[in-house]
Amino acid sequence: MEEASHPYVPRDLKLPGYVPISMSMSSILTVYLGASLFVVTLVWFLFGRKKPQLDKLLMCWWAFTGLTHLILEGYFVFSPEFFKDNTSCYLAEVWKEYSKGDSRYAGRDSAVIAVEGITAVIEGPASLLAVYAIAKGKSYSYVLQLAISLGQLYGCLVYFITAFLEGDNFATNSFYYYSYYIGANGWWVLIPLLISFRCWNKICAAANNVETKTKKKIR
Amino acid sequence: MEEASHPYVPRDLKLPGYVPISMSMSSILTVYLGASLFVVTLVWFLFGRKKPQLDKLLMCWWAFTGLTHLILEGYFVFSPEFFKDNTSCYLAEVWKEYSKGDSRYAGRDSAVIAVEGITAVIEGPASLLAVYAIAKGKSYSYVLQLAISLGQLYGCLVYFITAFLEGDNFATNSFYYYSYYIGANGWWVLIPLLISFRCWNKICAAANNVETKTKKKIR
């Protein structure tokens, strides 16, 4: 099989059998954002009735991030040869496009697969459970949201640190570096940070409450 | 500089300037276990007074694991050339010995450095904070212990998955594979699992308690 040329950096990355991307960047983004908007709207109006605004917003986030983890990242983890796909399969196109921001995806870097595997297999289903937990006001709601958010933060740390240690030279150009590698992942740093902070405080407040009650009883 | 031979697998691993290990395995283990026993005894009898047995045990674990993260793993992270050390420095000897179970340490594998970096810099200090939190009965005690334990579990997952993806061929022989790579790390899977389970339940119980109280007030 002859080696196909590819648009990724480093240029000496070997991707035998690479089939060029067939969808445009705007089509890929439109489908992703459109599908996400559909999910968010559904959750907001269907499952979020009678809930405070913040709970509705959190349910939308967990549904969006959970489906992204399960479908998009799940496909990546279990499709080692997505870059050879010649059927214009949307999920393969997504990763062919994203690899312009981080070629370790096309190159099957083991740290990236490990982090994406944990994200898809554990955090994906757990995120959908978080939607249910918030909807039903379960007692494990905050601790579950905290656990997933900390996992997302740990994953981002491993993701960025390993790239840095290996020379931080995996983006086709600085546009893809800042929009895909930094920009897209930035949301999975910022939002989990905010949620962790909130859940941590809620959990401590509940613990404080129990403690005060126990002390009063002892007296 | 001529390439020194080394005892690690894979045999084609390049470690120019490698200085052979000078301490025996038993000396290295004796110092580690002796120092750990000293720390545990100190915490048990000094800081653990008037505390339930389980709290004392947990404080001992957090002091032991925190100092291991900070000192042992901290040294590894910031000493990229430990395998060239010719001063018989104890910490370098530890990692020269441990690399027989996983040569990615001597080989500076980026996933290993990322996980060890997070462990040493974040989880090390956090573990010592957990000792203090338990001693003082802080409201963040359970959530802090849960967060560190989940971090340790995430780290172990990345550690084992990346080795598996790269062929799982980093141990000098099966003795080192099972005693160092599996055996030593196994404790950091088992104990964090138990602690996570306990803290999760404690946090949910507190949340339940607050909820019941709120419902009663509403009625």
Automatic annotation (TrEMBL), chains A, B:
Residues 54-196 form the EXPERA domain. It is a multi-pass membrane protein. Its main location: membrane. GO terms for molecular function: C-8 sterol isomerase activity; cholestenol delta-isomerase activity; steroid Delta-isomerase activity. PROSITE patterns: EXPERA. The chain crosses the membrane at residues 20-47, 59-78, 111-135, 142-165, 177-195. The keyword Oxidoreductase does not apply. Pfam families: EBP. This is EXPERA domain-containing protein.
